[in-house]
Structures are given as C-alpha cells and as structure tokens.
Specification:
Layout: E1 3-11, E2 14-23, E3 28-33, H1 42-50, E4 56-66, E5 74-75, H2 77-93, H3 101-105, E6 111-112, H4 122-171, H5 177-191, H6 198-212, H7 215-234, H8 239-259, H9 263-283
Parallel strand pairs: 3-4
Antiparallel strand pairs: 1-2, 2-4, 5-6
Length: 287
C-alpha cells in the first residue's frame, strides 16, 4: 500500500525533516537514509516501523541541519595546508587548474565535524529525532488508511461481481441433470435414428452428469465469498489471507471452465476468472 508523509522537527541547535514513503510489498521491509554519524538510530527506527506496519516497503529519509548560529564547525587547517603544499608543483607546472576554496572544503574530512557538538546532549537529540520519526510513520499510517478505504470499496465491488457470476453459473441450464439428459438424447437421436434404449440413455446421462457436475465447485466458491467478505470487514492486516483466497477462487474457476461443455457456461467461467484476476491484482496493495 502506498503513502507519503513529511514531518519537520526542531531541537536546540538543530532542525530536521523526516520524509517517509511506502510502496507495495509481500512482506515488511524498512529502509532508512540517515546522515553520517546517525546510523545508530536505525535499530530503534526499524522497531518503530515494525510496530506500525505488517506489509510493504517503507523508506524514510532524515535531512538534518545544524542551525548556523549554533555551528561550531572548524576547518582542518593542517589538512588544507598539506593538500596545497602537495599540489604546489602541479599548480606551478600548469598541469592542474588552481582549486576553488569551496571545492577544497567539500573534500571528506576537511570540516572537522568531530569537534562539532561534543558538548551537546546527543541522547536528547536522538530521542527527539525518533519521536519525530514516530510522528512521520503515524502520518504514513493515516495516508495508507485513506488509500485502504478507497481500495476496500474496489475489492468489495469485485466480490459482488464474483457473487453475481457464481449465481449465473448456478442457475445455468447446463448445470442441471435433466438438461444434460435432454442434450444427450438429442445428440444420440442425430447419430442413431433408431433411437437409444431409455435405460442406456439414463446410464450415459448419469455418467456424463458426474463429469460435468460443477455443484461442488459452486458450493466452494460460495464459501470463499463468505470468507472474503469476513476478511474485508476485519480490516488490515489481511493481505496475505486474501491473496491465498484469490488463488482458491482461481482454482475453482479453472475447474468450472474445464468441466463445462456449454459455450455460454464457459463464457461465464472466463468472466469469473477475469474478475478474480482483477481482485488478486488489487490485493497486492493490501497490508
């Protein structure tokens, strides 16, 4: 199930933004993009996701900024001088262009971040960041619920279509034993003008009726309908159960088509299979 949430936060000397997204997934996978030095938050961040979600790929990004007035960042002058000294022969010979200061300061380790915030209460910052992440994940849950409410209506519509098609199949003349006997009698009349013994006709009709009997499949489909409605009424997380149920729907629809010897009944079975496929496709979005 998809969703997006954004939460801004502030703590003495710091500002940040959490952005959380989720997309469909069979299981739960939480991934975090954290600034260097804050990887320590990931274990607790994963626990926050597990407490709220059962399925889906959840991605959260932390954009953390130190407020300018609180910044105590220092340039590593020794490293800068060393680089310039080493580059001097290349600069004098014209082999390289003279570097810009902003380019030099962007090099790893040029800003002495180890000295920044040593006196800060990092434990308090971590707590504030995780609290803010929890708020972002809660907002993501709300966004997913809104989508889920719309998706529930779509799934309910598919279940109603499946119910209608099952009813059409159950009332079809091709599923009645007397209709099977009449068709068989007409076919034998074409092939055997002298007719067929009534007892023999009854026997053949009974054998054919057993092969073409789809009442068990229709009964199981009706039972699956009840289960589907119960699961939709429960709410999440039921995605895996609905996915399994859609496979059972498909299996019974396949059997219905394979047993049918009537083109119109087969057409109903194919429509049923198509609706079940649509149902199963939407279920992939359900937690």
């Amino acid at each position: 199930m998809t969703g997006f949430a954004r939460v801004d936060g502030r703590s003495p000397g710091w500002t940040w933004t959490w952005e959380a997204r989720s997309v469909n997934g069979k299981g739960l996978e939480a991934r975090y993009r954290l600034p260097n030095g804050f990887e320590r938050l990931e274990p607790k961040a994963r626990d926050l996701a597990k407490a709220r979600f059962a399925r889906g790929n959840v991605n959260a990004t932390l954009n953390l900024r130190r407020e300018s007035e609180a910044s105590g960042a220092q340039i590593d002058m020794a490293r800068l001088r060393s680089l310039l000294d080493q580059a001097a022969p290349l600069l004098e010979s014209g082999q390289v262009a003279r570097p810009r200061l902003d380019g030099l300061l962007a090099l790893p380790g040029m800003i002495d971040s180890e000295q920044v915030g040593i006196s800060d209460d990092m434990a308090a910052l971590d707590t504030a960041l995780l609290t803010s992440l929890g708020e972002a994940l809660d907002a993501l849950v709300s966004a997913r619920r809104e989508e889920g409410a719309a998706l529930s209506a779509v799934l309910t519509g598919h279940v109603e279509d499946i119910t209608r098609l099952i009813g059409e199949a159950a009332s079809h003349s091709a599923t009645r034993t007397d209709a099977i006997k009449d068709r068989l009698s007409a076919k034998f009349a074409e092939l055997l003008p002298e007719g067929l013994d009534e007892d023999r006709l009854a026997t053949e009709a009974a054998v054919l009726a057993v092969k073409m009997d789809v009442r068990e499949e229709l009964d199981r489909l009706q039972a699956h309908i009840v289960s589907a409605r119960d699961l939709l009424a429960q709410g999440s997380p039921v995605g895996r159960k609905l996915d399994f149920l859609s496979q059972e729907f498909n299996r019974e629809a396949n059997t219905l088509c394979s047993k049918s010897s009537d083109s119109s009944l087969t057409a109903i079975g194919l429509s049923l299979k198509n609706t079940v496929d649509q149902f199963r496709e939407q279920i992939q979005n359900v937690e």
